[in-house]
Amino acid sequence: MSAVVGIDLGTTNSVVAHVDRYGKPVVIPNAEGQAITPSVICFRHGEIIIGSPAKELQALGKFPIAAFFKRQMGNPNFLLSADDKDYTPTDLSALVLGKLKTDAEIILKERITDAVITVPAYFRDLERKATIAAGEMVGLNVLQVINEPTAAAVAYGLERKGTGQQILVYDLGGGTFDITLLEIPKEGGVKVRASAGNHRLGGKDWDDRIIQFLASQFRDEFGVDPLEDQESIADLLVHAEEAKKQLTSVNTTKITVTHGQHCGGYLLDRAKFEEITADLMESTVVLTQGVLEEMKVRPKHINGVLLVGGSTRMPMVHRYIERTFGKPPMQGVNVDEAVALGAAWVAVEQLSLQKNKTFSFSLRGPVQTIDVTNHSLGMIAVNDKQTAYINSIILPKNREIPCVETRPYQHYTRRSGDNYIEVFMTQGETQHPAEVSYIGKYVIRDIPPQKSGLAVIDVSYQYDRSGTVKVMAKLQGSQQELPVTLEALLTNVQDRFLRPPEIQKIEIQQHVTAYLAFDLSGSMSGDPLKEAQKAAHGFLKNTDLAHCSLGIIAFSDRVKTKLTASQNARKIAEAIDQLKVCETGGGNDADPFDEVLSLLKNTDGRRFAIVLADGVWSNQPLAIKRAKACHAANIEVIAIGFGSADQNFLRDIASSNESSFFTPMEGLVETFSTIAQVLTTTGGNLQTTAGQSEKHGLLAGIHGMLKR
Ligand code: AMP
After folding, report:
1. How far is CA 601 from CA 128, 216, 562, 654, in A?
2. Rounded CA gap, 311 and 172, in Å?
3. Which single residue of 106, 520, 635, 690 has CA 20 to 30 Å from 85?
4. 240 located within any domain
5. Reported pTM
C-alpha cells in the first residue's frame, strides 16, 4: 500500500496532512508528536537534526543551523557549508521533506509515494522547480505544486460552494507575507485573481523588533550590547518569540535578558509592541491595498477574509481586518494547518485523476483550481532606437494557468554555419533589464537558412499547472519543433544588457514602429468595437515585439493617444481592452494623421499607421491632406475599412491602393493578423529590395491571402 499527502513546506514551519479513510483531511504528527515541524536543521558533528530538536539546539547557538532557507529557494548562489559538505536550498528543503515523509510513514504504516507541495503564490519558476526537485530527491512523485492560498480556500471547502464570492487570503507566516484575491466562481472551483507578497516579511521581523527593544534597554542599563555575542542572540531569539506569542493573549509580559555577568528584566506591553512594529504591519496593509486597487475591488465587496500563518494570531491583524472589511476573519480552520489540509484534498483528487487511484471515501470531485501567473514573463529585446536593451513582456501577469503564448521572432539567417537564437527569459514587471529576474537562457538551434535571409520563428512560452515555465519553438508555417536547450546563466547576466547593443545588429535589422488608430465614433458601439478589439489583439499576437513597438490611438471628434509605442505586450493589451466607443466624442470631426506624424516624427526605423474606419469622416479633404503629409514623411499608412466606410476615401488616405483594405466586419481579425504577419516576415521592409513594385507585390499578396 502507498499513501498520498499534502505538504505545506513553510519558511518557519512545515506541516504534512492526508485524507483519512473516512474522507477527513487530518494533520499527521511528526516523531515528536507535534502537528508542526519547524523548518530548522542543525548540523551537530556529522549528525543532522531536524525540526523542534534542531530549534532547541539553535537556542544554544553552538552548532551550524539552517533556517529560513525557503527564502533562498532557486538561488543558485546560496550554499550552506556544514560538516565539510555544501548544501543548496533544495538540498536543505529535501532534508525537511525527508523527515516529514519518514515520520508520516511510521504513523500511517504505509510508504508515501505521491504528494502535492504548496508554495507561496508569488514563487517564480526557479523556486517552483527547486521545490519539485526537493520532493523528487526524497523519492516523492510531486503530483503538482499549488499556491498556498488556493490550498487554504480548499481547506475551508470554499471551492464546492460556487458562490461567486471574492475572498481575500491574508497569509502572514514566520518569514513570508502573501496576500491573494480569490474568486469562487459560480460553477465552483477556486480562481486566484491576483496576488502580491514579500518573502522577506514575517513573524521573525516582529521578533527582531522585540530583540532591538530589549537590547537597547539592556545597553542603557549595563552599557554592554547583548547582540555582540552569538549565544546571547540565540537566547534573545527564543525569548522574543515567546514574548510575542504571549502578547497575543495577555496585555503585558516580562522578558529576562542575560549576557555576560549581567541579567536584566524588562516589561513589554501590547501597545508598545504594536508601536515598535507598526511599520511592519503597515507594509502588509500597503500590499493588500495594492492588490485590491490593481483588481479594482473595494474592501466592501470582499465577502470574506481567510487568515493563514501563525502570525495572523496577533490582535493587530484581526483589528486591521475588521476595521477595513467591516467583518471579522472567517473562522473554522486552524491557521497553521489550513494549507496542508487543503493540499491533502488536492493530492487525493490529483492522484485519482492522474493515476486512476480509488479511495475508500468518495471524492469531492476534482478541485477546479484556476491559478494565474503571478509575474509577467518576458524576453530581452532591443529598444526602438536600437540604443539599449529592454525587457519586452510576452505573457502578462494575472493570466490563467496553464497558458501558452506564441510570438513571432524575426531572425536573419546565414547560409553557412550554425543559425541559432538566444532567448533570455525574464520574470518581472518593468522594462528595465536590471529590475527583472532572469529565468534562463534558452537557445533555439537548427534554424534552416532562408532564401530571403529572414526566418520567422514562432516562440511559445508556456506555464504548466504547477506554474513552471517551458519554451518551445517552430519555424513559422512548419510543424517541426526546433530543438530548444536551457543553458546556464552567468551570475552577472544583466550586466550585458545594461550596455548598448552591438552595432552590427543595428545595420541588419531596423526597428518597426506601428500605431493602430481606431475610429471610435458612435457607429462602432456593440459588435464593431468588439471585433475591432479582437482584430487589434490579433495584430499584437502576430507582432514580434523584440523588433517592433506598437502604439494605440483613438479618434472620432477628438484624437487621443491611448498608448505611445511600446514593446510591452501587457500594456498594449490593456490599452486595446480600454478602448471605449465615444470616448473621444460621438461624431467624426477628427482624423489621426497629425497625431501620427508628431508621434513618429523623431522615430527611426520603419514606421506605420494602421487606421481603422467604419463610416464617413466629416472633413475628408483635410484628412487626405494630412494623410499625404504622413506619406511624404515616409510613414506607411495602411487604411482598413468596413461597414459604411467610403472605399475611395480609404484609397486616398492609404499610401497606395494596395495599402487600403475593405472587409466585412467578420474579416477584421484576419485582415489585421495578416498585415502583422507580413510586417513580421518582411521585418517591415516593404520596399527596400526592389522598390515600389516589390512593395505593391507584398501588400497585394495580403489581398490575395485574404481572398482565399
Ligand atoms: P508559520 O510560518 O505559519 O508556521 O508561522 C510561524 C510564525 O507564527 C512564527 O513567527 C511564530 O512566532 C508566529 N506565531 C505562532 N503563534 C503565534 C501567536 N500566538 N501570536 C503571534 N505569533 C505567533
Report:
1. 46, 62, 18, 18
2. 5
3. 106
4. no
5. 0.70
